[in-house]
Amino acid sequence: MRVEFPDSGESQELQRPISIQNEEEIKKRKEISIYDISLEQPSLQNKLSILDTKVKEIVNPQIYSNLFDISIFQGFKIQYIQIPSTNLNQISPSIHKAEISDIKLLSANIKILNSFNTDLKEIKQEIIKTKSLSNFDVNILKSEEIAKEIGPIIKLDTQLTTVNIQSGLEILSNSHEQLPIFEDFIKCNKRFPRGFSESFNSPFVVLIGEDKKEWHIPIIYSLKELFREITDKYPKITFREPEIIEEGFEENVDSIDLHSLDQFTFESKIEFLDARREYFTVDEFVKIVRGRLKSSFLQQFGVLIIAVKSKNLEKAEEALKIEGLQVYVSSPKDEDYEIFCSKILGLDFSDNFFDTLRKNERYLELTNKLISIFVKRGSDANDKYQYPLKVATFLYLLNELIGRGKILINNLEEFYKLTNEIITDGKIKVEYPISDGKIIPDMIYSLGDKDIYIEIETLIGTIEPLKKIDETIEKYKNECTGISCNIWVILKPVSAFLHYEELKARDSAYKILYSDKIIKFKVLILLISKERFRWNLMDIDEFVRRNNVR
Questions:
Q1: What is residue 126's predicted lDDT score, i.e. its pLDDT?
Q2: Which residues of the chain register pLDDT less than 50?
Q3: How far apart are CA 85 and CA 99, in angstroms?
Q4: How many C-beta atoms surround the C-beta of residue 510 within 10 A?
Q5: What percentage of the chain has pLDDT greater than the value 70?
Q6: Per-residue CA distances from 227 to 72, 120, 303, 353 (Å)
Q7: How far apart are CA 188 and CA 211, in angstroms?
Q8: Of 387, 419, 385, nearest to 402 (Cα)?
Q9: Nearest to 133 by CA among 85, 101, 105
């Protein structure tokens, strides 16, 4: 059909109505993605002014599209408006707890074509899943790189947040943040090493501020014990009391020990410098031996202890600020002195430290002289300090049985006779093999149908003191089970006081590893009343908790 236009004089032939098949092809051509449409404003006019024919309104077909892989279940129409309106709500991705860091996508600003109203409803889509991340494998992409992965995002805001997560080891380390009871008594600023794995064979300096009470004496005694545990050597102890120290004359010192004439060194020694008279003694001493102090990290294990007046503690600490030098600062209180001494010696404090120490040694010597005939030496015969403790423990067990039986003893001969009967009846066995000879406890204490396996541990020369106890307990792993299996670990007072927190941690672990056994830590103490004495075994918690050893 041809139509003529009177104004122009031209004519045009109108096409037949569009077939259904062609209409579907047109629809396919119109079904395109949003990001393939030109950003220019389309110029469409539904009415042709030059036509004199009646043209009906054309309804644009609905266009369905996916927005960067996020499924949109509601279709939308193209509307002819000049100002586009988009309603894109905040995307709320799921947040997973991370160990070190947590990446949060706060918002995503998405721009759509100006000519369309997408009318997007609330969209909740998990974009990034964070798994257990560590601080060394977190890979934070740039916003441009993330945009390539998830679609045409123009702007992406990210925030890195640190989350407080505690692992098992962190919980364990937190338990060590509080000072042990030993360091708390002497008001030390940090914890002393308790084994070779903590000291790494490196020396350190202990600076003590004291006034009336001579705190350096019990502290030296304790550190000497720790020295013998960490190493297999007995330290030489040097006392230095400088009168006048001149530059280049280190030997100009006075002392009660010949070793004071030795050149100052850390290796295998405990050096004590008494600088309580004049605080500048520390300055002069440091000047003379500065080279050896600076190279301390290259030397083997040893301890330098310096005593100053409390008022001069800060000045002395300042003089010892040398790179690489480990310095422990202690400012104990005089009112705690007697309690501290009684704890590390295991008996009530008398007039002074040395008198109390001599009492302990005298009664231990007397016990061995009278009772050692009944006590065998065992596999620890090379440990000359273990055997006297074994004899004292044996006497405690004898007194327990005598007390239970309410037996009166008039003289030493009757005591020996009763002791022999107890051993013959098997109520106390010394170095008696069990488990086909694979295990030989120091002693077996029998109470009715219950056997208590007793192990005396001095921890001397063990390098790793607590591992020695672990190995002792482990040998009973397959020996006995049930409530009748009891193991006592006997310790010296100073060892129990030094390692209390570690022993409590071991106790918790043993309850899990050896749930079929009852394991207890006991402390051998001495009770004195006038000229009479008695050895006693006290639970470690009770020993530490009491202000005295009674």
A1: 45
A2: 3, 14-15, 18, 34-51, 55, 67-78, 80-81, 97-116, 118, 120-143, 146-147, 150, 152-158, 160-163, 165, 169, 245-246, 248-261
A3: 42
A4: 20
A5: 62
A6: 75, 75, 9, 20
A7: 16
A8: 419
A9: 101
Residue 162, pLDDT score: 46
Phi, psi of 72 (to 5 degrees): -115, 115
Residue 528: closest CA among 370, 360, 357: 360
Cα pseudo-dihedral 163, 164, 167, 172, rounded to 10: 160
Alpha carbons 37 and 413: distance in angstroms, whole number: 115
d(CA 521, CA 509): 14
**Alpha-carbon span 19 to 426, nearest angstrom:** 115
**Vertex 532 angle, CA 527 and 538, to 5°:** 20
In whole angstroms, what is the distance from residue 113 CA to residue 38 CA?
Answer: 8
Q: Are strands 327-330 and 236-240 parallel, antiparallel or unpaired?
A: unpaired
- Name the nearest CA neighbour of 328 among 216, 194, 214, 207: 207
Expressed in percent and rounded to 5, the helix, strand and coil fractions of the chain are 35, 20, 45
Tokens of residue 96, six digits: 């997973």
